[in-house]
């Protein structure tokens, strides 16, 4: 029994099939256009709502007394969350066959991949959010963190911005701020400032401490409570060392100016009471080269050696 030969397909039939396929795709595209339009409109509305939410939340946080950095970051995060939810809804509208559960499942794998790829960025973002919730410091505070000291200008999603006391900008990643020790200089109303002054052994240290305390109490900017103090902290080579301490406003400039006036006042008070502040005593031991140079009977070389001078008889 002979097998029937296949019916040959002509070029016209092939062209007709392609045209029909293209027309089907075009009709499908035209049918999806309304859904795409609705999805696009939903995205536009979601974007506008997210901007409105950011603005409203920012004002509400500031009304509650939150810092500007906290209001900015939290309102921005809330706007992003709303926009993300609207984007998921738009995807479901544009592609009805895609279920929200499938989107969330795919989003889980995508988030895992993004987490590995952008680990540093996500860590800085999370650290910034935790810093804003804990609020160990706020904009305007003077802090020392990660070896840097300055005034906090802002806490953003990624970094903390400091203005150093000499007018430079320092940007520190939030994760380094969160993981390190933070010294907030302006957290309390006052901070203690101290310096050491040395008096001669011949003077009475009790009298000197009293003079120092009285001098500090008269300086403008020194807090009355707690009162200034003067305590003997050591016996130096040529002086009795006294630590003078007082409390003043915590800002760097104010504390330095008050310290300047305090040192001047203490110096003037000690001098007016004839309390000597001697320099360090240095003991010199006469070496052979030094003795020879003083007597003039030898020539001292640049290296400290002694070269005898020639006498009249040539010796």
Features:
alpha+beta, SH3 type barrels, Alpha-Beta Plaits, Helix Hairpins
Could you characterize what this model shows?
The chain is an alpha+beta fold and 315 residues long. The protein folds into four domains: 30-117, Helix Hairpins (Orthogonal Bundle); 136-184, SH3 type barrels, CATH 2.30.30.60; 191-272, Alpha-Beta Plaits; 284-315, no CATH class. It has helices at residues 11-63, 68-94, 100-117, 119-134, 174-179, 205-217, 252-272, 288-295; strands at 142-145, 148-155, 159-164, 169-173, 182-184, 191-199, 229-235, 240-248, 298-300, 306-308. The strands form three sheets. It has a five-stranded antiparallel sheet with strand order 4-3-2-1-5. Helix 1 packs antiparallel against helix 2 and helix 6 (205-217) packs across helix 7 (252-272). The longest helix has 53 residues, at 11-63. The model has no long low-confidence stretch (mean pLDDT 78).
SSE layout:
Blueprint: H1 11-63, H2 68-94, H3 100-117, H4 119-134, E1 142-145, E2 148-155, E3 159-164, E4 169-173, H5 174-179, E5 182-184, E6 191-199, H6 205-217, E7 229-235, E8 240-248, H7 252-272, H8 288-295, E9 298-300, E10 306-308
Helix pairs in contact: 1-2, 6-7
Gist?
The chain is an alpha+beta fold and 315 residues long.
Strand order of the largest sheet: 4-3-2-1-5
Number of strands: 10
Helical content (DSSP H or I, runs of 4+): 40-55%
Order of helices and strands: HHHHEEEEHEEHEEHHEE
User: For the terminal residues, how far apart are their CA atoms?
Assistant: 144 Å
Radius of gyration: 40 Å
* Largest sheet report: 5 strands, antiparallel
Supply the helix-strand structural class.
Answer: alpha+beta
Describe the global form. elongated
CATH architectural group of the largest domain: Orthogonal Bundle
Q: Overall pLDDT, averaged? A: 78
The CATH topology assignment of the largest domain is Helix Hairpins
CATH level 1 name of the largest domain: Mainly Alpha
Total helices: the number is 8
Whole-number tally of structural domains: 4
Strand content: 15-25%
Uncertain runs are none
